[in-house]
Write a structure and sequence with these properties.
Elements: H1 19-22, H2 30-43, H3 46-51, E1 68-80, E2 87-98, E3 101-114, E4 117-126
Antiparallel strand pairs: 1-2, 2-3, 3-4
Organism: Arthrobacter agilis
Family: Belongs to the UPF0225 family.
Domain YchJ-like middle NTF2-like: 29-123
Length: 127
């Protein structure tokens, strides 16, 4: 990955992909919000993670583990979550490295649209 590549893995540069969302833009789909949240984890953007979390389930803080290197995002499945929907589900796999060991997080995440903006609600981690 170069400095211009978006951490979420699209072919777009960060400035055209997740960067505008991190600067306050609205995601058009639940999947786009999921990608921007992965990039926020990779870049250590705690404030963005909280701001993109539905107020009904949002924690007070997000403590990112600085020893985790988020490496790759794969969208496995989406259900609704389009530009005309009010709710959606995105299942993803996120590859990471920590203490020299590789790992994989798989989650089926729920999203809702609140006042026109997609928000992360919660998710079920898959084994």
């Amino acid at each position: 990955m170069t400095l211009d590549d978006c951490p979420c893995g699209t072919v777009l540069p960060y400035g055209e992909c997740c960067g505008p969302l991190h600067r306050g833009g609205a995601a058009s789909t639940a999947s786009a919000l999921m990608r921007s949240r992965f990039s926020a984890f990779a870049l250590g953007l705690e404030r963005y993670l909280l701001d993109s979390w539905d107020p009904s389930t949002r924690p007070d803080t997000v403590d990112l583990d600085g020893d985790v290197e988020w490496r790759r995002l794969q969208i496995v499945d989406t259900v609704l979550g389009g530009d005309c929907d009010d709710a959606g589900v995105v299942e993803y796999r996120a590859s990471f490295r920590r203490a020299g060991r590789s790992g994989l997080l798989q989650e089926r995440s729920r999203f809702v649209r609140v006042e026109g903006r997609w928000m992360y609600v919660d998710g079920d981690v898959r084994a």
